[in-house]
Amino acid sequence: MTKSDLVEHVASKTGLTKRAAGDALEAVLAAVEGALSKGDKVTLTGFGTFSVRSRKERMGRNPQTGAPLRIPATKVPGFTAGKALKKAVK
Fold first, then answer.
1. Three-class SS of residue 16?
2. Is the distance from CB of 21 to CB of 10 less than 8 angstroms?
3. Helix, strand, or coil here: 70?
4. Using the 8-state DSSP alphabet, how is residue 44 labeled?
5. What is the reported pLDDT for 16?
6. What is the pLDDT of residue 71?
7. Are 20 and 28 contacting, i.e. CB atoms less than 8 angstroms apart?
8. What is the domain range of residue 83?
9. How many Cα atoms sit within 13 Å of 31 on the Cβ side?
10. Model pLDDT for residues 48-58, shown as the tens digit of each residue
11. Same domain, yes or no, for 68 and 87?
12. pTM of the model
């Protein structure tokens, strides 16, 4: 499902126009992005939790030359599915 498919689905379920549904979806995504950029968690009960995870520095290899290289530590977004979502997928 793409973003436009999701907008269409929300519009049909709520009776909103596609433009209004798209604006609502953009607002939700911006709120999640803003919270994660501050280091906060976003919990949607029954659906899941978005959080920021830290990756440690590690050694890797250049696939073309095989030379070892250092991959720096970084922060990445993570998602943990909630109980209801896990049950629905089963």
1. coil
2. yes
3. strand
4. E
5. 94
6. 96
7. no
8. 41-90
9. 9
10. 999 999 999 99
11. yes
12. 0.81
Mean per-residue pLDDT, 20-30? 96
Q: What is the dihedral of CA 67, 68, 73, 74, to 10 degrees?
A: 30
Say whether both 58 and 45 belong to one domain.
yes
DSSP-assigned states of every residue in 30-61: HHHHHHHHTT--EEETTTEEEEEEEE--EEEE
Which residues are paired to 78 by β-bridges?
51
**Residues 30, 16 share a domain:** yes
- Tokens 């973003």 label which residue? 3
Residues 51, 37 contacting (CB under 8 angstroms)? no
Let me know whether 47 and 32 are in one domain. Answer: no
Q: Which contacts of 42-46 are long-range, i.e. CB under 8 A and separated by 24 or more positions?
A: 44/82, 45/82, 46/82, 46/83, 46/84, 46/85
**Residue whose pair of structure tokens reads 């436009």 in the numeric block:** 4
pLDDT band of residue 62 (cuts 50, 70, 90) is very high
Average pLDDT of the segment spanning 71-77: 96
**What residues contact residue 2 under an 8 Å CB cut-off, 6+ apart?**
none
